[in-house]
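seq as requested:
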Amino acid sequence: MAASVAHHKHFSHDYHSSESKYVVKEYSSSITEAAEYRQEFSKKIHEVLHKKMPETHIREGPMSRGPVFTARLRSHTVFENTPIKLFCTVQGYPMPIVKWYKDNVILDTSSGKYLVDGSAGSHSLTITKCSIADTAMYTAVAGNSHGQASTQASIIVKKCREEEATIPYSWTPYQFAILPEIKYTKINITLLETFKVTFAKEGDSASLAVKMSISPNLANLQPKALWYRGEHLLKESKWAKMESGGGVAKLTLPQLYKDDEGLYTLRMVTKGGDAVHSAYLYVEDSPPPVPKAPGAPMDIKIHDANRDYVIVSWKPPNTTTEGPIIGYFVDRCEVGTENWTQCNDQPIKVCKYPVCGLFEGHSYYFRVRAVNSSGISHPSRMSDPIAALDPTEFERLHATKLGGKLDVVTYHDDLEADGAAPGVPTNVRVSEADRTYVVLKWTAPAYSSRAPMWYHLEKSVAGSDAWQRVSTQVPVRSPRYAVFDLSEGTTYQFRVLSANMYGTSAPSEPSKAVETLKLKGVPSAPGQVVATRETDTSVVIQWAPPKEPNNLIGYYIDSCVKGSKDWESANHKPSKKTKFVVHGLTTGVTYVFRVQAINEMGLSDESQESAPILVRAALTPPSAPYDISMLSCDGTSMVLNWKRPLKSGGSKVSEYYIDKMNMAKNRWQEVNIPPIKERLYTVENLTEGASYKFRVYGLSLAGLGEASKASAALECKAWKMPEPGPAYDLTFCEVRDTSLVVEWKKPVYLGASELTGYVVEYAKAGSDSWHAANETAVNHRYLKVSGLEAGGSYVFRVRAANAEGLGAPSGSSDPILAQALPGTKEITCGVDENSGDIFLAFESAQCTEKTQFVWKKSYKEITDFTSISVKTSGSTSTLLFKEPTKEDVGTFSVVATHTDGASASYSISSEAMQKMLAQSYDIRNPIIPLKAEMTYKILERGRVRFSVQVESMSSAVTYKWFGNNKELANCEATKASHDAATGVIEMIVDHFTEESEGTFTVQIQDGKGKAQSSLVLIGDDFKAALAEADYQRKEYIRVKEGPHFSEFLTVQVGDDCSVSLVCKVDNLKKESVIHWAKDGAEVAPAAAAAAGVCKLPLTLFSKASMGVYKATISDDRGQDESQLNVSGEVFDNIINDLGRLAGSTAAELTVQSTAEGIMLQCHMKYFTQEMKIAWLQKETKLAASERLRIGGTPAMATIEIVEPVDKDKGVYHIQIADAEKTHTRTLDFSGPLYDNAYAEFLRLKAEAYAEKNRGKVVGGLPDVVTIMEHKTLSLTCTVCGDPKPQVSWSKNEVEVENGDQYVIAIDSGKFASLTIKGVSMEDSGKYTMTIQNKYGGETVDVIVSVYKHGDKVPDAKPVPTVKRILPPVLPIVIPSAKPAAAAVPPSAPSTPTPPRSAKSPTPPVSPKSPTPGRMTPRRK
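struct tokens:
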């Protein structure tokens, strides 16, 4: 015997096929075995069903069930004036609604004292400030369509903490037992990193992750992670993968469809409460198969599955930017295959379709595609598998016990028949009605026969008695079936007959008349749309529902920037509520919104547009300040600091209020009546030794925020420790994956000595292991901490140090995640290509309309904007250096306010600044740099060439020439051309006349670059040009006829510093001559001219060489002249050239001592006083004076220091300047160099003094004397010397003694004489006079020739003799009593007096009168 065994699939009518099998079980007669048998039998039935239903065919969907509390309320005992929160969690489907009761009376929440909150199954009741009247039993009742559940807890409120031990519980007016104290491990969960609003496309994957800290983190008490989409609890499936553990909860959606769009909520559930976070996931359409094709339908649902049909429904896509939808195609695919079959030949317009013709027992997938005039959409996500089975088959299973331990499982109506027809079905009713079908349900008759039973269905139009049998493709065996192919808007009645193999029952009573639905169309447009601000990137949209909903499914919301027509879908899955938060908007942009309602027929008309709204955060009161700390205490006052609220509410928290509580009095009091603007305040008038608690409120434009958590008890005791107090106000910027920058403020309490530095410490969040970030204390209040673990969470603190040691650490910072913000950009530094400005630019991806960029240097805010300027455009801030210098170096940083910490820094080095300064200079030149401005040149025949030269040009360059603002055409009269290789643009004017006077301009354009150059030719300049043009016209004729200058006079300075006037002559013949003249006077004799270069050297060029030079070339054909005025600019140019040549080849400085001082010399090719030469001692320029003689010779420049002293030591420079460069030579005139030169100076000075004061013959003695015998000879001369010199005479090297014949005399120390009385022939010979004092002297020779009377006067010729200089007595001592004697007048020669010539300057004594005395007359 065969029996069909079917699978049962929960309440969602999901079934799969199976084949008839025998199920055999061993039999036992014992009671124990019987119980086990029943249990095993039931288990075996499900196992058989499970084996026939592969896992891939299982449909995962919510099971309809009643409420169940997974976390129940707990009782509490609290003190008066303290808050309390009751918490519970509930599950069920549909999501239960929770109501709260106090002592079995519904709780009134209108007073604001009781705050009720509930989301995603998590519910709480908060009593903000408990009073005695709040002692009661509280009940939470959860209910849905499947039942109710409740949980209770008691709250006992005591008067005060001091009375806890004395007040009995008998005062409570409630007759219930006081619950014992419930002890459990409370697990605190802090969400560290949460997922945000996410935007994705169909086909992408998405991961939503939350990082958290769990304290205590117990392995056997791990929190449970529950994920919700909307109010639907998600379960693990191929569409959703869940991970939890290690402080991370993660939901992965591997392949997104629009079905996945919605509000995702994570609930971390523990026994002590839960932690909840929610954010929206947007999934937009993937690119369509063809342009403008619609998006895919979504949310495929299967209804009323039976043996040969199912009913498929879906939701239509939004068509904001696509054409209207024409209809839909429904596809099916049998499980186990990949062959999709289209179920309908023509597109259907309604989002519900009955799919008939299924094979009983087969499982199917379904999907839907939308169609419009442009094409067909991508298919929707396929449905979960569904089986075509009778939903009541499991109820008809029957087990028959056989002998032994065997059972047979079969259906009731598959057993052997008893031979009777079944009874009449009852209670025929319509459970669902549509336009073309209804779903019937009825009650099966009592049936005990073993023959199979089935049903026949009949229909009739209401009001007629004509019944028509409904044709079915398979026998109807379940008491539910759908009747198709009905007429729209027609009223029907239905009845059912039961049948088996033995007959058919009578028909049932007809059902009530039911009218099939009419095609009412889409809903009417929604009502007024109101947009209100929420955050800086989101807006809350609310609207009135449509007046004609027509089976409303939900709404689509569209957004558009004001002023444009580009509408975009805000949601891609219909929203059921009349309120929606639109995320992803741009801060500071104005938007308008509209809404469309949808049903199974499609989308309604658009609503009216909302009023424009500017996207920015709505204002709310700030959250509570936190982490109150004490920075100093003197015994009667405390300095407090606190952290600003984490949430400002959209406006600046500008003021604060402080409350204090003396722990002994247990009463809060206001500290400050006027609000505080800073987060640093000194609370005065405190009691020394008392302990206080403090709390702080923040105030903004939106109102007063919540009070902070009370601080720890702080004792008012004067601080006397020698170490400094804690730093405070730790802030962070430049947070990157492995580094960040910490800033802080100086401690209020400095300790016993000045601060010497700071040490930054850090630890991983949740750890007590602190590490120093800097080994050596820093003396500034910022530090870049590197080496962090990417993605790690850290806390920081700062300790100040002084000479006594490290002080107390600051309060720990909030946990900082070492992770760069998405889209983080660094500061860029460069030079603007257009303006040449040096800039620092920073772009923040998180800008809001309130964002301001704060620039700092060395992490100190820049307040002086004299040398820099800051420009902000959109999300980019640029710091410009107005007049950058090499000093504008260092670390520059910027912080973008009202962001999540967008910041960056950039360090400019000296080398980088120098490079940018050079680049800036180059860029600020014209876009097309000119190599040469416009010039003109007179050409032969009097033509004028105007030209300009650019650095470079392309072959595409264009230009226009203008004369007196009138464009000049390119023609023979004004011919324009250019040479791209040289960059020269020129125009040749053929006829240059008086009408040409004015301004000539050329405008150049090469690509985007432009340039312009002008030349003004008016007045004397024009007259000169016109005269030159006339001259050239005449010259052209002249050159053809006689000798002429092919190149006129010019100056040529040779490499050897020679200066010459040169010219070139041409058209010469042998008779041609050239004449040179200066200022009209001939300076060189006429010379024959040769063709080529003629030259006139100007030797020893100086100011004396100035004048007008003229060269004349002439012959019998005529003459030509060339004239050059060597003065003014020409003279200056020559001097510059000489200076250039002399300076570039100048030797190093040398030292030469003289009798008057020390001379510094610089040898060079040529020197003249007119050259631009300056002498400097160190950095001081020296001027000529009596002590400093500045001059030189043609071979060198000199400076002589007369009578040098110690202050003359030092570094000396000589600067030789020309028009372009200054040449410098340097000498360190100190140390041994100075000492040696000074010693040599003293030696020369002494020798000069001795030379000046030694005995000398000034004049008077002849070289040769002839005298007649017997005459008296007197040799007399003038002498000098100081002291008075001694005089002696010798004859032929033998000393002459003073006697009768020889008389030696000296008169007044000035006149010396030798008188020889009665000369004789023996007196002839060489007489030598020696004059000498202590400084030396000299000898003078006189030749005396004596002749006899009557003889011919001998022709005596002087024999050249060398004057002998007698040395001084060493050492030479210069008298100190006569300092003036050491001074040498400026006119004295700079070198020792040269030796006297052999020829005496005194004219020789006439032979006839050799002496002034009487002479013996000659004899005839």
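The longest strand covers residues 147-158.
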